[in-house]
Amino acid sequence: MTQRWLAALLAVIATCGARAHFSDWGGLLGGGRPSQPTCVDIPRNMSLCHGIGYHQMRLPNLLEHDTMAEVLQQAGSWVPLLNVRCHPDTQLFVCSLFSPVCLDRPIYPCRSLCDQVRQGCEGRMKTYGFPWPDMFRCDKFPLDNDMCIASQSAATTGKYCHTRQPASDRGSTDPTRNTCVVSMRSTLEEAGTQL
């Protein structure tokens, strides 16, 4: 049933001219029309991005959608991809673009997050005749050594760990008392935002 929904919605995307939209990165990573970002509540009817750990998003978003109506229309097309569970970080990746957390500067998904989600989901999309969209081209996202949103499912690998002492242990000389920065929450805390 979920696969039929995915096929149907991806077909709607194609017939509505969304393929042309996917090839236009707009404001993502430097381009497009300038617009002062504002913070808006993530609406309850935006099912794609509920439960992501924050309640306000930046508009225009990182895909340069200027209005909430445009965000809702475009984001709704990606809900079926979440339902097929092709990768545990699909929602994190897609929502970091459609409903980015509202900060004074944008925080993009890390290239490795994009690569992992692409590896997990591209085959499912190709099954229904859809390529990985240009708007999600992984080579346009920052490397992991930059400030970016890393994979949460990679937490057990230690791949995204940074040595940092917890606030309660500041001044401690015990080198084993470190934390891993692996989640979007940690990334946001490092950027100085309160959730």
Automatic annotation (TrEMBL):
Principal location listed in the UniProt entry: secreted
Gene3D superfamilies: Frizzled cysteine-rich domain (1.10.2000.10)
Assigned keywords, A-Z: Developmental protein, Differentiation, Disulfide bond, Secreted, Signal, Wnt signaling pathway
Cellular component terms (Gene Ontology): extracellular space
Domain FZ, residue spans: 34-151
GO biological process: canonical Wnt signaling pathway; cell differentiation; non-canonical Wnt signaling pathway
Family under the similarity heading: Belongs to the secreted frizzled-related protein (sFRP) family.
Entry protein name: FZ domain-containing protein
Species of provenance: Timema cristinae
Lineage summary: Eukaryota, Metazoa, Ecdysozoa, Arthropoda, Hexapoda
